[in-house]
Design brief:
This protein is mostly helical and about 150 residues long. It has one domain. It has six helices and no strands. Helix 1 runs antiparallel to helix 3 and helix 4 packs antiparallel against helix 6. It is rod-shaped and about 75 Å long. It starts with a helix and ends with a helix. The model has no long low-confidence stretch (mean pLDDT about 90).
Amino acid sequence: MSDEKTILLYALSTLAQTCAALAAFVGAVGLYRLQSLHNRRRDLLRHIWESLGDLPAPEEDVLTEARRHMANRPALAAMVRDVEPIPKHLQQSRQWLMALEAWNLLVIGATLVGFNYVSGLASSAWTSGALWLTAVGTVAVTGLCVFVWTKD
């Protein structure tokens, strides 16, 4: 086997292993972030509900009622301000988790298929650029996910 083929096999193997590890570890961090946001929202809504006197009402009605009383209740206003952006953060976190997992699964699939075409890929002029693009894309997607999940 030529040096180019051996190097390509190592590169493909390393990409597949790295992406599998990132999908597992960073994916777990993303799931933790989602769970933390859900718990924070639930706890804030419960505190708002309790501060309003345990009104029997759906979640959105509780927030509507809380907004009406915010002017003269600073603690209630603070809780409402804290709870309002959480759905947006949940949506962003979900989207980035899906992007991370999709990217990593795409790379893993491409590398596994690439094992079948080592000879052709080793002699191709664009293989080196594709490997660079894949490596940079993997770092970028992972870094962006971590940034989004830790920015607030």
